[in-house]
Amino acid sequence: MGRSSRLLASALLVALPRLAAADGLYLYSIPVAVDEAGVDAPGGPLRVRAFVANPTALARLLPASVLSVGADHLELQLAPYPELEPRAPERYRAASFLIDFDEAELRALVAELTARHGASPRLEELRRFTRDAIPRKSAERGWDLASRVARSGVGDCTEHAVLLAALARAVGRPARVTLGVLLVRVDGQLHALGHAWTEIHRQRHWIPVDATPISEEARDPVYLPIALVSDEGPGYALGLARSLQRSWVRRLEVGR
Fold it and tell me: For the chain, which domains are there?
């Protein structure tokens, strides 16, 4: 995260104080134009025109949500939740380099989780336990391994997502880390924020689960996934960079 990105994150945290616990979360703003009359109108899912580097590539990942594809953008409908690679739950069960729930730090945390909530915690119990396991919300870290997060208790949205995925897998639930855009309304204004969260597989669908305080404090959060952390090996950072370079959102237009 460069100096300019950190300055932007700090400025945004000042602007959104209720969404930033302690030292802050890894948030950065994406320009968004809002049809306020359409957004505020009752009924119907949000529609988003997303301007991305490669609209065709992103459209292939979200076929059920795509309304149209242009030269520099695609139009999406954000309900139901857009699922990237919907049929791959077994791929996201095992321990990996990044989601290393087989390490000692994670085993101790899993023991605490199951002692408190039983062998099969509910999604909300997993979410809240993960939130509390990272008491220091800070953007100083950058994609720590799950075991490092368990040891330090420090992190932003990426650490929350990684740790939640590790805990979910440890109790037998397929889980994966997703990057994308979070749409939140604060003081009557809609904001688009770069974000990371966890998806947990339940009843044949991937469910977005956000362990950061944003999921509790924001009004009606809406998630637009654009990339999965599918490479969880030692080269995961390079894989992330390639995915985001292809499909990261430059700006949004939102309405109904």
Answer: 3-255 (3.10.620.30)
